[in-house]
Amino acid sequence: MLGAAIVRQPAVHRRGPEQAAPATSPPDNGAMTDFGPELLNWVTVTLRPGAAWTVREERAITRWAWRFRQRIDMARPLEDGGTWATRVTAVTPLVTGVTDTDRALALVAAANRVASLSAVVLEPETGTVALACAAWVRQASKPWLLPLLEGAVALQLAVPEASDPDAFADGFGGVADVAPHPVSGPRTEPDVALEIVATVQRAGIAASRIPPRDFRVVVGDLSSLRIPARSDGARLEVGADTFNLGGPARIVLENATHPGFGNGLLALLRVPIAGGPGGTERLANDLNRYELADRVGGTTFGAWSADEAGIAHVAFLPNHVLPRREADRRARLVNCVLDEIGRLQWLDAAWAGDGAAPGDAAGMPAGMSTG
Question: What's the rounded Cα separation, in Å, for the pair 159 and 314?
Answer without folding.
Answer: 18
